[in-house]
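Aim 2 progress update. The chain analyzed this quarter is reproduced below.
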Amino acid sequence: MEPPRDQGLLRSDSIPEVGEDAAATVGMAETLSEEEQDELRKELAKVEEEIQTLSQVLAAKEKHLAEIKRKLGINSLQELRQNITKSWQDVTSTTAYKKTSETLSQAGQKASAAFSSVGSVITKKFEDVRNSPTFKSFEEKVENLKSKVGGSKPAGGDFGEVLNSAANASATETIAEQTQEETH
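Predicted structure tokens:
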């Protein structure tokens, strides 16, 4: 049988993983003496015993912790709330959050200024339209129609009232015309 050649990263012998039985992966060339095996078995038993003891101590500490929390009136929901609050505080104290918050604040201010500007422009345009000769002429025609239909009400008033009145007058004229046509 040939001795194994060193293949670097492509070595065929396995390396024991954490928790894997190291003795099962020992090759034939690495046999241990009886004395070394006894020593390793003793050490193995000692480590397993320490792990068991630590597990028991941890369980006792967790039980004690739960008892203290119960006496203090701290329940799972309160703990969750505290954890979330602390996490939120941690997040808000980061540089990334502060920069993002500042950027969004500036963007909001710019958007607000832009909307305000657009609103001002629209208001100005409506004023310009209302003061235009075409609109004045239309307004006069609506006023004339209103005075013909409405009768004794004084001219002028709210433009919305004038439009509503004109619409009602138009509807009334249409109904009267339909009634006349039906009777003929």
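Residues 1-11 have pLDDT under 50 and may be disordered. Residues 34-72 form the longest helix (39 residues). These observations will guide the mutagenesis experiments scheduled for the next reporting period.
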